[in-house]
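Table S2 (text version). Query chain:
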Amino acid sequence: MKITSGEITFDLNTQQRRELDYLARWRADLAYVTERWGKDDPEAQVSRGSIEFAFTVLDRLHVPFWLQNAALAYGEDWRNRQCESFEHYLTRKGYEVA
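Corresponding structure-token output:
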């Protein structure tokens, strides 16, 4: 998948895409848990640790920060994430996805 933001283009492979989805899922989990039970809930701490791990993996895979930030923003709105794909989210936010 090719994603373009302005004049920057990044070719996303399957493993990178999978890890971005992992990051978005954990961010959605953190948003849900924090909303329901507060930021000090043990599950929120697990989610934060998983997000940090996802950042490490994505950095090793050379995924640019702007794309990692887009995955975080996508996951943060956990209600919308349930009915909209990451690709549709990116398109709605002005990225070109091919």
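Notes on Table S2: DSSP finds five helices and three strands in the chain. The first strand starts at residue 2 and ends at 5.
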